[in-house]
Amino acid sequence: MAPSTRFEIRRHCRELSEKDTDAVVHAVADLIVSYLKRDPGPCRIETHKRPTAGAAAPVKESNS
User: Fold this and answer.
1) How far apart are CA 64 and CA 58, in angstroms?
2) Residue 10's pLDDT band (boundaries 50, 70, 90)?
3) Mean pLDDT, the chain, integer
4) What angle do CA 54, 57, 61 make, to 5 degrees?
5) Higher-scoring residue by pLDDT: 49, 11
6) Could you give the count of Cα atoms lying within 13 Å of 36 in the half-sphere of its Cβ?
């Protein structure tokens, strides 16, 4: 068995300014909206607007 390789991970974190935070929030929101518009998927429930009063004639029931 080959020996496992060890990785050293260094994270460089700093506090974001308000301007940078807003930019990140907007970028993530745009990403989510773009994804949902492109690929709504089977899990999303489509909502339909109800017609306003008088917008459509009532459907007559058939006695077949």
Assistant:
1) 18
2) confident
3) 76
4) 135
5) 11
6) 10
What is the chain's alpha carbon radius of gyration, rounded to the nearest angstrom? Answer: 26
Token look-up 């506090």 returns 15
Check if the beta carbon of residue 44 is closer than 8 Å to that of residue 36.
Answer: yes
Sole residue written with tokens 């990785």: 7
> What's the predicted TM-score (pTM) here?
0.44
Sign of CA dihedral 36, 38, 44, 50: positive
Distance CA 15, CA 39 (A): 34
**The pLDDT of residue 64 is above 90:** no
Asked whether the beta carbons of 22 and 29 are under 8 A apart, the reply is no
H-helix or E-strand spanning residue 13 = none
